[in-house]
C-alpha cells in the first residue's frame, strides 16, 4: 500500500542517517520524501548498496522458485541491453528477432504442430502470461456463444484450489467465476474426474498446473484431456485446456520426454512458463504460446509499427525491459537441450536425495519426493505434537535458511507442511549443510513440550503458495 510506510511510526518520521564515514554532505536524507537537493552519485550508491545488504541471502533461500544466479556473460549482456525497450521493435529489431527465436524454440520443445507458424510472446512472468491465456479462453468462448445466440454473462474457469494466486487474480480482474476443485484426503491437486464434474456450457477452459506450488506435483494433463474428450462426446461441450507450466514446462521436456502434457494433446490450447524459474533467467520474463491462430482470437492482437511494416503484439504492458529476453536467448544458445537437461537433472537428483534423507530423519513424512518439478513438501508424522512445522521453519531461519511452512487450502486446512524448492546452484554440498542444520534444530525442538509457533506466526512466508481469500471453493 503506497501510502503506508513500512515499520513503526517512530522510524517512519525519522530521516535516513548516513554514516559519517563517507564524510560527504548531506549526512541526512529524508526517508519517504524526495530530497531537496542532489548528492554525489557515489554517496547515493553507497547508501542504497548498504541498505540492500539487509536483504536475505539468495543461496539459502529455499522458498522462491525464481532464479537467483546468472552466468557473468548473461549479466554482461543484460547490462548491454539495459536501455532497450521491448516495445520499440522498430528501434531494436534484433532484440525482437531474438524474442521470435525463443518463441519458436519453445514451440518445438512443446511439440507444436507447426512450430514455424507458432504464435506466442514474452511477458513479464507467468502471471501476465496467465492473464493473456485466460483472456484468449474467455474471448473464444464469448465468440462461440454469440454465434450461437446464447448469453455470455456468466463465464467460469475450472481449476484446482492449488492454483497459484495469479489465477485468482485473473478471475477477479476479468470477471470470470473461479470454480476451484477443493483438496480431498490425500488428493492435493486437480484430477480428470474432479475437473469435468465442475464443467458446464459456461466453462471457458480448464487450467492444469504442471508443477503445483503447494507440493511440486504435476497435475495429470493427459488424463484431464481424455476426460474432457469424453465429456465432449457425451454432451457436445468442447472445453480447452490451458497448461500453467510456470515451472514444469521447463522441466518435463528435458526430464520426462515421454510424458504427454503439451501441444501433443489436441485439447491443450495454450501454455505458459516463467523464463525466470527453470528457464534460468533473472526475474522479469515469462512466455505464453498458443497452439495455432484459432486458439488466439485475432481481435485481441494489436499491431505496432515494425521496420515500416507491422508487428502483432498481445501484452498487458507497453514498455518493458528487453534485457531478460536477451538473457533467455543466451541461455538457450549456451546450454542447448543437453545443457538444460543436465541442469534440471541435477536439481531433481538433489531434490529427491534430500527428500529421501529428510524422510529418514524420523519425524517427517513426505507428501511428494521431488520427482516431478524439483520441489517437495513434507509434514510431521502423526503423534508428533511437541513442536510444529512452523517451529522447524523458524529454527532453520535462525541458521539462515528460508524454508516456508504453511497450511493447505480447503478442504485440507488442517494440514501444515514445509516445502523445499531446489534451484540451479543448490548443490548436494549445500543440501548436506541444510540437513546438518535441520538435525540440530530437531535436537533442540525435541526438548519442547508444546509447539511455540502456529500458522499465524508464519504470515506471508509461503512465496507463491499463498492461501486464497476465504470463499466457497468449487461454488456453482
Ligand atoms: C510462479 C508461478 C506462477 C506465477 O509466475 P510469475 O512468473 O512469478 O508471475 C504461476 N503459476 C505457477 C504454477 C507458478 O509456479
From TrEMBL:
This is Glutamate decarboxylase. One of its GO terms (cellular component) is cytosol. Keywords: Decarboxylase, Lyase, Pyridoxal phosphate. It comes from the Bacteria. It comes from Streptomyces griseoaurantiacus. GO terms for biological process: L-glutamate catabolic process. GO terms for molecular function: aromatic-L-amino-acid decarboxylase activity; glutamate decarboxylase activity; pyridoxal phosphate binding. Its EC number is 4.1.1.15.
